[in-house]
Amino acid sequence: MQMVDLNESEDINDLEIRFTDAKDLPADILARLSFLLNSPLNGKDFKTLAEKMKKSFQFIHWLEMQKDPTASLLEHWWSDNRSRKVKDLVILLKEIQCFDAVKLLAPYMHYIGVCSHSALTESVSSKACQKIKKLKSSSKKPTDFDSTEISCDRST
């Protein structure tokens, strides 16, 4: 993942906001997520998350026998589909109302990168770059924004 300093970028149009792959979460964040979800907490734990991910009863039983069931669940979840994003995990965590975990992951949902293939990302990057320009002209830093304020809608 290439990080970009907005103040040193030569051309703002070379920047875009990208969704972070779930497998790229830092180890300390995964450990904190495990701490939150490994404890049985009235439907806000790894078992409920596994059910939301449509995992079988047998798989959930296997998770219960693991040293770190949350880590095992997440490794399985992103290994069966390499394009899993942190935003996908946050959506599931919101559905089970595990808001401590949502708050933990919110800063990792997006990052600002350099556009590598402008023809393919033109519609997305132009919207993202408009938002980045707003960021640069405002007093807020990109990290001060709620993750919902900085998102790319690929549907238009």
Write the layout of secondary structure elements.
Elements: E1 15-19, H1 27-38, H2 46-52, H3 57-64, H4 69-79, H5 86-95, H6 99-105, E2 110-114, H7 118-137
Antiparallel strand pairs: 1-2
Helix pairs in contact: 1-6, 5-6
Commentary on this structure:
The chain is built from seven helices and two strands; from the N terminus they run βααααααβα. It has 156 residues and is mainly alpha-helical. A two-stranded antiparallel ribbon has the order 1-2. Residues 1-5, 117-125 and 140-156 have low confidence and may be disordered.
How do the strands of the widest beta sheet line up side by side? 1-2
Series of secondary-structure elements, N-terminal to C-terminal: EHHHHHHEH
The biggest sheet, with number of strands, parallel, antiparallel or mixed sense and barrel status, is: 2 strands, antiparallel
Uncertain residue ranges:
1-5, 117-125, 140-156
Q: Give the amount of beta strand, in percent.
A: 5-15%
Through-space gap between termini: 26 Å
Number of helical segments?
7
Secondary-structure-derived class: mainly alpha
The number of E-state strands comes to 2
